Amino acid sequence: MSQKNHEGKKSARERLQEQREKEKARARRGRQAIVAGAVVVVLAVAGGIAVWASSSSEKPTANDNEVAVPKQASDGAKPAVPVGAADAPATLTVWEDFRCPACRQFETGFRPVIHELEDSGRLKSEYHLVTIIDGNAGGQGSLNAANAALCAQDAGKFRAYHDVLYSHQPPEPQDKFADKQYLLQLAGKVKGLVTPAFTKCVNDGRYNRFVQKSSDAFASSGFRGTPTVLLNGKDLSKEKGGQLSPADLKKMVLDAGKAKQPGKQSAAPHTGASSQGRHTGRSAAPRAEPPAGSTAPRAKPSAGSVAPSP
């Protein structure tokens, strides 16, 4: 074979390889567009994070069988888990997906002040668990993690385990939360959580239908992405131009509770927090980290911006 022919064939191979790489990149962008849907807001946590939003691909399904409800959780049209005093003067409503990197960023930034307000009786949080990423990207990590968190609710340890899950959230494409053994391993970080009853609840998927019902409620709610966070019904992404800090949230909660006594009746116990759950040594307004391995495209962040939702 002449040198000229050899170079010609090599060039053809290189062109073919380049074309394949372009096609792969185009396919990746297509998948990301499906996951991301329409980016509707830029959110940040005390320094700048972007939150992506998507339309769930899941369709509401009829539940022919009875839906098991965790202890102290609310059923009805919008199933939720309460944390904090039931009679607290302010209510934070949070729609979250345990596989969502932006949810992890929100939790990392706002967790210390939310815990402080819950523990002081000034704030009750209501967590609605959804499975957007399972529906859009495939897998069962959102579902299995949510079920495990509800199993922890039965043991009075929802908040501690919820925080551990976000502290150990794997890169989104890995779907490591689909592994129930991994979820049980993480439960070992919450003192007293791993019991035969908890293990059976996780392995059996006892609250899968409850999670599905919550996810269906989200799909029909008009909200477009996670995290969606409301304070006393107000969408925080629309407050202060979407640039809300943890300090701003604290002020809003305290202002809402002026002339009102803090709550005293616990809506859901949250004992057994691990060091990860308590975020020992973290400031009240940490700079959020970029989500490792996220497949979702991110909008350009606004410095100091903060709240969530559509």
Note poorly predicted spans.
27-64, 269-310
What's the SSE pattern? HEEHEHHHHHHEEHH
Global Rg:
22 Å
Intertermini distance: 62 Å
User: Strand order across the biggest sheet?
Assistant: 1-3-2-4-5
Give the % helix. 40-55%
Shape type: globular
Structural class: alpha+beta
Mean pLDDT over the residues: 75
Give a quick set of tags describing it.
5-stranded mixed sheet; globular; alpha+beta; 10 helices; disordered C terminus; 310 residues
Produce a short descriptive summary.
The chain is α+β, with helices and mostly antiparallel strands and 310 residues long. The chain is built from 10 helices and 5 strands, in the order αββαβααααααββαα. It has a 5-stranded mixed sheet with strand order 1-3-2-4-5.
Write the SSE topology.
Blueprint (H helix, E strand, L loop, with lengths): L2 H34 L44 E3 L6 E7 L4 H19 L3 E7 L2 H6 L3 H14 L3 H10 L12 H8 L8 H9 L3 H12 L8 E4 L2 E2 L10 H11 L18 H4 L32
Parallel strand pairs: 2-3
Antiparallel strand pairs: 1-3, 2-4, 4-5
Structural summary, described in words:
- The chain is an alpha+beta fold and 310 residues long.
- Helices cover 41% and strands 7% of the residues.
- The chain is built from ten helices and five strands.
- The protein has helices at 3-36, 101-119, 132-137, 141-154, 158-167, 180-187, 196-204, 208-219, 246-256, 275-278; strands at 81-83, 90-96, 123-129, 228-231, 234-235.
- The protein has a five-stranded mixed beta sheet.
- Helix 4 (141-154) packs parallel to helix 6 (180-187) and helix 4 packs across helix 8.
- Mean pLDDT is 75; it is low at 27-64 and 269-310.
